[in-house]
Amino acid sequence: MATSSTPATTGRSRKTTAYRHDIDGLRGLAIALVVVFHIWMGRVSGGVDVFLALSGFFFLGSLLRGAGSSRTPLNPLPHLQRLVRRLYPALAVTIAATVLGTMLIKPPTQWTAIFDQTVASLLYYQNWELAYTAADYAAADATISPLQHLWSMSVQGQFYLIALTVILGGTALWRLLVRRGTPKRFLVAVVAAGTIASVWWSAIGQDANQAWNYYDTASRMWELLIGGLVAIVLAGIVLPWPLRLIATVSGLFLVVSTGFFFDGAAYFPGPLAWYPIGGALLIVLGGNLPAGQRATPARDPITWLLSGKVFRRLGDISYSLYLWHWPLLILWLSYDRENETTFVSGTAIIVISLVLALITEKYIERPLRMASRAKGQKTPAALARDMLRGAPARTGRQKRQFVGATALVVVAAVASLGTVGWWSATASSRSSVPYVDSLTDPVHPGARAFFDGVGAPADAPYLPSLLQVGHDLPPSTMDGCISTFESSDVILCVYGDEAATRTIALTGGSHAEHWISGLDEVGRHYGFRVVTVLKMGCPLTLDATVSDNDELLYESCAEWTPKALGAVAGLQPDFVFTTATRPVGVMGPDVAPRQYVDLWRALGEQGINVIAIRDTPWLNNGRGPIRASDCLGDGGTPEECGMPRERSISPINPASLAAAGLDNVRLIDLTDGLCDPESCPVVVGNVIVYHDSHHLSGSWVRSASGELARQLGPATGWW
Question: Which tens digit of pLDDT belongs to each residue from 579-591?
């Protein structure tokens, strides 16, 4: 993580500034916690939050102190130049190496998302890329990216720009309008107000949408702002010795224990983020020593420990170490079929990360960060001393290092962006999904291989291809005929035979939606229209709940539900087509929620019949969802990438008992087209079944339209 090492005041009575080696050590401790918890614990340690607070402490504190002097220049360019020299070189080189590693290790099915994040990371909006991905319907189960950790760098970059704008802009306005005194107190008040607003926003966001809140710059802003406030308000306070000891010991405990007590991914940057940040600020406050006094093991043990060479050196390379450790971890997990980190492999990742961080800091960060010194900006006395020591050769070496580092950074950035540009330019040829007529295609029978025993050649390529299947979406998604997570609008679209008088209303969430590819075909053939009333992640119920505790699915789903019920009542369809079951958790087996049954009963009271189709197996290995194309691209077989039938599907359709006594309900079950007696593979009849980890591909659904028609005929009585 990036924090600028600048001196910090340690006492009001000091006339000179003393360098705080213990804060360098605190950065070293924080990066050690980040790496260890990422590699072996698989959770957030709070170290990143400590880094953010220290970034604010150094950068914002420096700006606010500068605002107190009328001689401080207001040109932002020198600040920006220093930031670019400090942050961008190591970032560009690490990203280029990660892009190369991605192409060598990860399957091409994951390249697009990682390349999108490459651009987002280089332009410092990676946190927003991840926030939108977390909320994005089609990518909700995307595998972890080797660039995911760079969200924090984007937050810092955005903070630096905002801080420069507010502090320098506010100072300029003060000098223009007030023309006396300094705006320091005014700017401190502005920062305090921003801190309070961000704290409030992060608390609200945790309840509303934690996945978004985690990456939201506005929610994270207080973690940096509070560091800047401490640099101004508290950094000059020297506590009595007993309080210093209590503060630093308590602070160390809070920082180190965070990851053991709770996983910050579920709570930060909400109120619990004060736990590690408060600990860091206690260490900063308790490390302020009286003028002329040095920390000793007896009186100030924590300050002395953090000022030691090991932690200070870790602090020096903390930025590069943060950049390197995560891509190495993720690429190793992608290479290792067991998808786990042992003590040996984890230790190897740490050692390699340390070596790369040391090299990066010495040969890339340092030559470019110290560019001004390499240009020979020295006093005459210093030049004379250098002449006696043979400094011209050293200056030449510094210049060569500067040129070499600059060239490497430029090549890395150009290579990364060039690779992304090539991949984007050729995207249409890879992603175009061919139409597969699986009802007649002898090579790609799809569901007919299970339903009708149609043989499929073992050596035939899969359709759609691994790169195409992610785009094999329902036509309602492509046409914008499903309400998004953010919207509560009811969108009605018509498929099948649009001129027909007989109507089926396809209602609910995505697991009802993915059957539209088959319903559209059957409707056009047998003469009925299909009207969609759909919303992402929102199966239709009476009260927008599907759990035993009656908890709402989410806010816009609750707003959409009564509107959707009204739309269905207004349509007065012959049948409502919806899902009959859903898995327990994300692994199954499936159950029929009571809320579904309540809806069926309520529709029956309005004279509306129901066709309820059993849900599909969800791909999950117990450690998280499995995207079918990624698993196949990694060399997995259709059976290895699929699910055991007994674990994902109940032996008997649970909706059979749930619908007993409801004369208006007809059940449809296409499970035997997805699963053989033992397993539910991800490829059936040379057609890939899933376009992600739990949504059916349009091609497979069309291949099942024959069986869908066979079951719909008796269910509707129309043929």
Answer: 999 988 666 689 9
Query: At residue 564, does pLDDT exceed 80?
Result: yes
CA angle 251, 257, 258 (to 5 degrees): 95
Omega cis (within 30) before 589:
yes
Q: For residue 308, count other CB atoms closer than 10 A to its CB.
A: 14
R_g over Cα of the chain: 30
Distance CA 223, CA 320 (A): 22
Q: Which of 61-65, 160-164, 369-373, 551-555 has the lowest mean pLDDT?
A: 369-373
Question: End-to-end CA distance of the chain, in Å?
Answer: 66
CB 614 within 8 A of CB 590: yes
Residue 399 CA to residue 632 CA, distance in Å, equals 50
Residue 512 token pair = 């009802």
Cβ atoms of residues 227 and 53 within 8 Å: yes
For 406, 712, 714, the CA distances from 717, given in Å and listed in that order, are: 74, 8, 5
User: Using CA atoms, how far apart are residues 457 and 445, in angstroms rounded to an integer?
Assistant: 10
CA distances to 365, 414, 435, 571, 667 from 452, rounded to whole Å, are: 64, 54, 21, 36, 21
User: What is the rounded CA–CA span in Å between residue 22 and residue 285?
Assistant: 11
Q: How far is CA 105 from CA 8, 100, 170, 209, 333, in A?
A: 45, 9, 49, 33, 10
Instruction: Give the Cα separation of 42 and 688 in Å (integer).
Output: 31
The domains found in the chain, sorted by start residue, are 25-371+381-423 (no CATH), 448-716 (3.40.50)
The β-bridge relationship of strands 687-688 and 683-684 is antiparallel
Mean per-residue pLDDT of the chain: 89
Q: What is the pLDDT of residue 695?
A: 95
Sign of the C-alpha dihedral computed for residues 556, 559, 565 and 571 taken in this order: negative
* CA within 13 Å, CB half, 572: 4
Is-contact 589 648, C-beta < 8 A?
A: yes
The CA distance from 275 to 269, in Å, is 10
Residue 645: alpha-carbon gap to chain centroid: 31
Task: Determine the Cα–Cα distance for residues 664 and 667; give it in Å rounded to an integer.
Answer: 10
Distance CA 162, CA 168 (A): 10
The C-alpha atoms of residue 248 and residue 302 are separated, in whole angstroms, by: 6
What angle (nearest 5°) sits at the alpha carbon of residue 215, between those of residues 209 and 221?
105
DSSP for 116-146, please give it. HHHHHHHTT-HHHHHHHHHH-STTTTPPPPT
